[in-house]
């Protein structure tokens, strides 16, 4: 039996929350994690909204939990591998209905509308033979589907498929309905996160909470070159993305992109990630970042020549405005205000032209024709 085609029913007390659930966070998962700990971690997952829905509409069979029969805490139990949030909502609701002292919100829910006993006695579930039998469903639902996990949770799940199930990038892609480059980048990003975690100089909490920024940064040539990461590496070669001799660069990278307990990151917005990659391609800009105690993103970007397109845009816009003014300026040849404005424009233009001496000669020659 891979996946049972029939829905079964059991008491909420016979169903166990999954201690391997990626949503609990990397530091909170493992077969020894207690159910009470899991409940505490899930307390703030807006479970009360689900509880109210259960009381008003019941637990629909089409939302049946997916469970696997596993040994947990030394005994064989039904562990929920899909639907942990729904199960936790039921467990909190039952505690409130039984009169246990929990959050006031739960007490108010059961006082307003007492839940029917059948809600806790007949919980629908479908049993699967093993976690592998439901991997594709979980991947599609939570990595690319409508109930997405957070970026770090997605990457961790992909890593488990690659390392635990020994799947290739292409095989994972087919399971979860994503694209192979996306799978590869998620895996390498996750392995980089684990590598950063080993460094005392990196505030890993800051990195993990902005994992999507880490993911985006790896697509830039500048980050790949600065960290010497092979973004096309196969799983065996990607387990340690940054070579040992470039760990100092990795610490710098994490500080600039994510900050620390005492320093804010220089990249303040995810929209600056591509520009950050451009900065890391410039030797002069990187030298500035590495040697300055409080570097500025704007200064580094300028040193990298990143503001050239903006300067060109400003000059183009000024030229367009002057051309538009010239079509009517002759009507106001005696205007003192126009003369003053023209003088300022002339001074600025002369200063700009001084950057290109040969251009001045070309313009004079062109006018003489």
Spatial ordering of strands, largest sheet: 1-5-3-4-2
- Biggest sheet, open or closed, and with what strands and sense? 5 strands, mixed
* Anisotropy-based shape: elongated
Quote the distance from N terminus to C terminus.
90 Å
Estimate what percentage of residues fall within beta strands.
5-15%
CATH topology of the largest domain: Conserved hypothetical protein from pyrococcus furiosus pfu- 392566-001, ParB domain
Account of the 3D structure:
The chain is of the alpha/beta class. It folds into three domains: 8-129, Conserved hypothetical protein from pyrococcus furiosus pfu- 392566-001, ParB domain, CATH 3.90.1530; 140-258, no CATH class; 325-368, no CATH class. It contains 20 helices and five strands. It has helices at residues 35-42, 47-57, 84-97, 104-112, 118-121, 135-144, 151-164, 169-176, 180-197, 204-209, 211-217, 221-227, 235-238, 247-258, 273-279, 283-291, 297-303, 308-329, 336-353, 357-368; strands spanning 8-10, 15-16, 65-72, 75-82, 123-128. It has a five-stranded mixed sheet with strand order 1-5-3-4-2. A hairpin with a 2-residue loop joins strand 3 and strand 4 (75-82). Helix 6 (135-144) packs antiparallel against helix 7, helix 7 (151-164) crosses helix 9 and helix 8 crosses helix 9 (180-197). The radius of gyration is 30 Å and the shape is elongated. The model has no long low-confidence stretch (mean pLDDT 87).
What descriptive keywords fit this protein?
369 residues, alpha/beta, Conserved hypothetical protein from pyrococcus furiosus pfu- 392566-001, ParB domain, 3 domains, 5-stranded mixed beta sheet, 5 strands
């Amino acid at each position: 039996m891979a996946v049972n085609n029939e829905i079964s029913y059991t008491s909420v007390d016979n169903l166990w929350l999954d201690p391997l659930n990626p949503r609990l966070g990397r530091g909170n998962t493992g077969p020894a994690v207690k159910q009470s700990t899991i409940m505490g971690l899930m307390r703030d997952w807006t479970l009360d909204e689900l509880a109210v829905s259960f009381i008003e509409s019941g637990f629909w069979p089409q939302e049946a939990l997916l469970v696997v029969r596993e040994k947990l805490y030394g005994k064989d139990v039904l562990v929920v591998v899909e639907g942990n949030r729904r199960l936790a909502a039921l467990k909190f609701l039952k505690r409130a209905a039984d009169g246990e002292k929990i959050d006031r919100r739960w007490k108010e829910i059961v006082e307003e509308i007492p839940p029917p006993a059948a809600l806790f006695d007949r919980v629908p579930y479908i049993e699967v033979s093993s976690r592998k039998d439901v991997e594709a469903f979980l991947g599609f639902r939570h990595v690319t589907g409508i109930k997405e996990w957070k970026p770090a949770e997605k990457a961790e799940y992909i890593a488990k498929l690659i390392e635990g199930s020994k799947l290739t990038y292409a095989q994972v892609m087919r399971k979860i309905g994503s694209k192979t480059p996306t799978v590869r980048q998620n895996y390498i990003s996750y392995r980089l996160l684990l590598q950063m975690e080993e460094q005392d100089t990196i505030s890993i909490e800051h990195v993990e909470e902005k994992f999507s920024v880490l993911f985006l940064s790896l697509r830039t040539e500048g980050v790949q070159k600065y960290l010497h990461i092979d973004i096309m590496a196969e799983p065996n070669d990607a387990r340690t993305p940054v070579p040992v001799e470039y760990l100092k660069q990795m610490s710098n990278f994490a500080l600039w992109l994510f900050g620390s307990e005492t320093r804010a990151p220089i990249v303040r917005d995810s929209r600056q990630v591509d520009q950050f990659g451009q900065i890391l391609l410039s030797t002069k800009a990187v030298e500035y970042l590495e040697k300055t105690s409080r570097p500025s993103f704007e200064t580094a970007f300028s040193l990298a020549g990143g503001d050239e397109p903006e300067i060109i845009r400003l000059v183009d816009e000024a030229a367009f405005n002057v051309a538009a003014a010239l079509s009517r300026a002759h009507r106001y040849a005696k205007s003192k205000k126009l003369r003053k404005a023209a003088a300022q424009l002339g001074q600025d233009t002369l200063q700009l032209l001084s950057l290109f001496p040969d251009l001045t000669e070309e313009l004079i020659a062109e006018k003489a024709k």
